[in-house]
Amino acid sequence: MTATPQQQTYQDRIAKIQEALTNGQIDQETADQLKKQAAEAEFGSKSFDINEFESLLGRLEGSKMRQQRQKSVEGRRDIMSQGLASMMSNF
Fold it and tell me: 37 to each of 18, 62, 85, how far by Cα in Å?
């Protein structure tokens, strides 16, 4: 299995950090911070944007309410058409 160029870049960064730690150029805390930064750059930050979530939730709720309203309108049409058909069959 061959690594993609992006994966190779990430692996190279981690290897360089480990090498600098082994050579005594940086301490363990700095190495951990650099590894965390490299991981966030590669895989994305674990931060959570509550405003974006609330915006998406609002859009979903609005969509669900519109669907329910449309379902109710169609249900009333069906009831009216069934009643009309029933009346017509009695004649």
Answer: 14, 38, 70
Tens of pLDDT, residue by residue over 28-83, are 999 999 998 888 888 876 677 788 889 999 999 999 999 999 999 888 888 888 88
Enumerate residues 6+ apart whose C-beta is below 8 A from 38: 10, 13, 14, 17
Domain residue spans of the chain: 18-47, 55-91
* Alpha helices by DSSP H, the chain: 5-22, 28-43, 50-90
Q: How far apart are CA 17 and CA 30, in angstroms?
A: 9
Whole-angstrom distance, CA of residue 10 vs CA of residue 79 = 63
- From 50, 48, 14, select the one nearest 33 (Cα to Cα): 14
